[in-house]
Every structure is written in C-alpha cells, then in structure tokens.
Design goal:
Strand order of the largest sheet: 2-3-1-4
Number of strands: 4
Largest sheet: 4 strands, antiparallel
Structural class: alpha+beta
Order of helices and strands: HHHEHHHHHEEHHHEH
Strand content: 5-15%
Helix content: 55-70%
Shape: rod-shaped
Distance between the termini: 12 Å
Radius of gyration: 42 Å
Length: 338
C-alpha cells in the first residue's frame, strides 16, 4: 500500500504534463488574472529615473607637500595621482555624512518632494528610509565610486547626483581646512616669534659691535699679536691702549660668541620653519578637487523603474507555479482520502 502511494505521488515529466493538461482551465484562468493584475499594478507604480555619477578619489597628499615641498616626495604621491583603496573607503564614509544628507534635504525640499507630513512623529525616519532606497553609493571593481540616484523627476535625480559629488569636495575641504587653519596659526605664531627673537639677538650683536667687539676670533688674534709687538718695542702708550681693548674684548667676547652661535642655530631653524609656514599657509588657503570625475550625472531619457515586462512575467509565472503546486497538493490529499 505504501509503495502504491509513493508511485502515485511520483510525478515524472510525462505525468506532470498530463496533470497540467487536465487542470488547464484553472491554470489558464489564474495565469490570465495574474497577467492582467500585474499589468494594472505596474501601471499604477510611479516611474522613477536614474542618474549616475562615477569618480575616482584623488591622492590624499597635501597640496603643499606635492607642489612646494623641497623634501623630494612629489614622486611618491602627487596631486595628479589616483587614490587607492584607502582613499575610496574614506570617500564612501563621507558620502554617508549628515552634512551631505542635510544639504540635499534643504535644497530639494525633500519633505514636500516625497510627500512626507512635516508634523509626523516619525517624519525623519520616513525621510531617511526613502533617501536610503533612492540614493546608493558603492565601490566598483576598478576602485572608483559610483553614485546612483533614483527619483520620479529625472532632472532632480541628475541634480542630486552632481550635487552629492560637489558636496563631497566641499565637505572634505571644510574638514581639512579647519585643521589646516589651526596648524597654520600655530606655525605662524612660532615663525614670527622666532623672527622677533632673532632680531633681538641681531640688535644685541650690533650693540656689542658698537663697543668694539665685532669679530672675536680675528680681533683676539690681532690684538694679542699687536700687544706682544708693542711690549717688545717698549711702546707704553700703545700697550695701554691695547690692554684696554683686550679687556673690553674679554668682557664682551663670551657674550658675542654665545649670541653668534645662537644666531646661526636659530637662523637655520627659521629657514626650516619658513618652509613649514609657507606650506601651512598654502594648505589653509587653497582648495583642490578631491575626486576625478569620470561621468557626471545626466538627465535620464528613459525610466529605470519599474520594469513592467519583468514584473508581468515574474508575477504570471509565480501565480502559475503556485497554482500548480496547490493543485498537486490537493490531488495528493484527495488520493490519500480515497
């Protein structure tokens, strides 16, 4: 008995076709109904248009390092080089920032555009879900970034795509500029403070020079030689004068040597600091694009969604298969009961 039941339930291809033929009327009726309903439903769905922006990230090197640095690192990461995976990941993270999203909400009045009640308790949840469904960002296999925007208005879809790319640059520049300006102010303060300090040292050396000490090494050697010669010649007047100069040289010579060495060291530090000062100034004032745009968003001529043919075919086939399974199940239950 069990073997007979298993045989009855075992539908091979021929039996399945015969069964479908015997049940052709309900299968055809359900398929036609599904076909008609899916057409009507697809016609009721508001069409949406898609616009796409594709860009590569630029290298994250600073402008000053690439353009005016004398350290010779330009070849490692220049401003004309494409960024790598790390830069791509960073751009994707910034694309999801509140700053870009809030800009789109304000510019395109998305609450009204998406027919969301501004007084609703969950208005932002609704809005953010719609934005998430309509705007997508992804990394391509070529390490570029693709922005896809869907909207019922093709011009808004294109505008939002291009605005997102533009806002990406603005957001990065704002983030970097804030840090660059702070760094510039620090370097600027140190640079001008060092300039003032060097000027004070130069003034001190000038005053010591006015007292007769202007080149300790050569003066010391010359005075000692002249003093010994005057002593050997018995020139008392000259000896007294030379002794006075030697005493003055001894009094201010140590200070002169200290200030001279200090000035040399600080002048070298000022030279290095000046390069950093110029670099920080450039970084705080200049804005370069952080992306290489491959494709800008264009106004779509054809809708991207819904794909009515796909909807109709899928719905009709699904209804047909579901009806067939139900009929098979019903037939099996009837056979078991008999």
């Amino acid at each position: 008995m069990k073997k007979s039941t298993e045989t009855d339930l075992n539908f091979n291809t021929t039996n399945l076709l015969l069964f479908m033929y015997s049940k052709r009327k309900p299968l055809i009726i359900v398929s036609i109904l599904a076909f008609v309903i899916s057409i009507l439903v697809s016609l009721l769905i508001t069409p949406r248009f898609q616009s796409t922006v594709i860009f590569f990230p630029a290298s994250s090197t600073s402008i000053s390092n690439a353009l005016i640095s004398t350290s010779g690192n330009y070849g490692e990461k220049g401003i004309l080089q494409f960024g790598e995976e790390e830069e791509t990941e960073k751009l994707l993270q910034i694309l999801y920032s509140d700053e870009i999203r809030d800009f789109l909400i304000a510019k395109y009045d998305l609450f009204n555009h998406y027919d969301i009640d501004p007084g609703s308790k969950y208005r932002y949840t609704q809005l953010f879900n719609i934005i998430k469904n309509n705007i997508s960002f992804r990394k391509t296999e070529y390490m570029s970034v693709k922005i896809e925007v869907l909207d019922t208005d093709p011009e808004i879809a294109a505008g939002m795509g291009n605005d997102i790319a533009a806002m990406l640059d603005s957001t990065i520049n704002r983030m970097r500029k804030k840090r660059a300006v702070e760094a510039y102010q620090i370097v600027k303060k140190e640079y001008f403070a060092l300039q003032t300090e060097i000027k004070e040292v130069e003034d001190s050396l000038k005053k010591i020079g006015e007292m007769g000490v202007y080149d300790y090494e050569s003066q010391s050697a010359g005075l000692n030689e002249a003093y010994l010669k005057a002593v050997s010649e018995g020139n008392t007047f000259l000896t007294d004068k030379l002794e006075e100069q030697i005493k003055k040289l001894g009094k201010y010579g140590g200070t002169y040597l200290f200030l001279k060495e200090f000035l040399e060291n600080e002048s070298a530090r000022l030279s290095n600091l000046k390069e950093k000062f110029v670099q920080a100034k450039v970084d705080s004032e200049q804005n370069l694009p952080h992306t290489f745009i491959v494709n800008e968003a264009k106004v779509a001529e054809k809708k991207a969604y819904p794909r009515r043919t796909l909807i109709v075919i899928t719905s009709t086939m699904s209804a047909f298969l579901l009806t067939l399974l139900l009929l098979i199940a019903a037939e099996s239950v009837l056979k078991e009961q008999t």
